[in-house]
Amino acid sequence: MSDQGISEAQMRGFRSAVESLKLYRRADLHDPDQGSPLIEELYVDPLPHEDVFRTAIRPHTTFVIGRKGTGKSTIFQRLQHELRKGGSSTSAYLDIKTIFESSQPDQALISRLESRKDALPQEAIEKLALYREFLKATVTQVQEELKRRIKSSIWERIKESFTQTYAELFDELDSLLDSASEDNFVSVLGILETQLKDTAASGGSFEKELGISGSFSATPKIAVSATEKSARTTSDERVSVYGDVLIRAFNIREFLDRLKNLLSKIGVRHLYILVDDFSELPEEAMRVVVDALIAPLNNWSDEFVKFKIAAYPGRIYYGAIDKTKIDEIHLDLYSLFGTSDVSTMEANAAAFTRRLVESRLEYFTKHDSSIFFDTKNEEVWRVLFYASMANPRTLGYVLHFAYQNQLIHGKKIGVQSIQDASLKYYEEKIASYFSVGRFLHEAFSERCSIFSLKELLETLVVRSKELRTHKSAVFEKISGRPPTSHFHVVPSFDGLLSTLELNFFLTKYFEMSDRDGKKVSVYALNYGLCQRYTISFGRPSGEREFRLYFVERVFDYSSIVSAFIAKNQEIVCSNCGEKHGLDKLEALKLFGMKCPTCQVGVCEVVNLSKKYESVLMNVQSELLLPKTELGILQALHTEGDAQRPAYIAAELDCSYQLVGKRAVRLEDRGLVTRSKDDANNRFIQITDIAESTYFTGDHSGELDVGSDP
């Protein structure tokens, strides 16, 4: 037992509580000893009266929107747990990111199809394979959920209420899965070729009427670039044909009717399809999933199918889904708690943070928080909120590092130890976004875009550091160093800052009116980043005027962001390469971004990184890796020793199967080794080659913001 009286059992309980907060995606909350589900006991709703959960369980299609770690998958678990207790609804959980990865057709199938006359292009085949995997996964998950229920005592009586036995129902579902076999899949492609020829013919005349010379064949192509609107229309028509033919060929509508009729006899009125990791899909795949699957299934099912879709803010495609007929649940700070003034928002968010910690500690340790925290100082809970921004997974990591720094040394967790833990979390988990970004296997323009955001972040941090010694009337009323962690911009800049926010460098804190009465968005720099660069966090108290501290004119960074855009963005025609000034952007938008110079190409806004261009140019192309592979190397580098795929998956917020597949590729390149222990558990370890290539002497994760005096 430590000097503070914390027993070994209590320490183990604290570790379990922290691990339960760090859980990713579908990692179930369960009792470590008995294996029983704990989701109902441990679920803490952010809002009073469990309003988030009550909204999620309504029989409406719902988008659950939040950054990583905000609890989207936890809400799904709570939802499924509740559905299993009743008989009016059932569910199917789909990891859409894994489905997308597994849908890539093998080369044998591609070769067979390429040998056919007028075969579809590989891109179209990949889309159809995605449809097939989505439907197969849906049917399989419905089967698993029904089996899980029927085996329970509550559902035993249901066996007698079928006009056919439940086994026959599963036979029909198996039959539907069989219809997605490879041979039948090839047949669907054959049907599709004919359909696309018809569509191509009408599409050609449509383009001709526009006065743009173009031609289509069985493999549709536009001979010259058209306007964005016409090109998008052609794409939408093709997606529509894919969806119509696929759903007709696999009898999905017939399946829905049959399943609905069977389940209605036992009182099941709704099938909830839970789609996780939606925003992890590439943009084109996201469009395909919505246009060809989610929207038609949602609209055709006569209220039977309801989708629950987990997505990131700013990375959602709705397509034909009627937004007026769906629910949206926002889990990030301002959207969740910012219904009143900023003080109330902070109080509610800090209270949620405290409830979350105390509920986990009470279950896993059987003691209150005073055993582990310096609760005599109420500041602990406010600082925990600052460090986590009420994000459960971030909270878990901060407490994990605080445990390592304090509890195992017999010391309680206080304000300073939380600040130290947030710094370590920032350095190990957040800052690496830039250090690995230069090796990302994307177009040079995409990597430039990442590093242009680094330049923007550096500009913001430099200004926040400068304000520490700024002279103004409001600062004169503050004793000591003034807090300069927050800033505000006009809302039109929210989109530009969204990627920095999605990667936790910033958090949208509130929306307010500035001193001139104009609406502005208030942002907070990452708390650990502020510890790293000695920036005081928050706002002062004591004076009435401090209520508007965040919208003081010195914190208006709109001009800073505008200057950055002018320097690092340009508008370029994709056809003739002509560059246009940013002052022409609004005029170009009125004409669908059509290039006024060549009258053919579509103009695009390109992000530049002039400061880091040479760094990116010096990266050899053979060193570039996809995002997942880079994430695996980063996780192994951070830990320093061999890790199991499940641990790496938790760090990357993906499935362990995906980690396993990508580790094979990395091993082929000599970047990791794969081995098994005596219990046949797989382990992955980074090689010296990978360490020296990707991490030795690398300082690209550091911000170039000058040194402190």
UniProtKB/TrEMBL annotation:
Single GO term (MF): DNA binding
Keywords linked to the UniProt accession: DNA-binding
Ranges for domain AAA+ ATPase: 58-216
InterPro entries on file: AAA+_ATPase, P-loop_NTPase, WH-like_DNA-bd_sf, WH_DNA-bd_sf
Domain of life (superkingdom): Bacteria
Name of the protein: AAA+ ATPase domain-containing protein
Native organism taxonomy: Bacteria, Pseudomonadati, Pseudomonadota, Gammaproteobacteria, Pseudomonadales
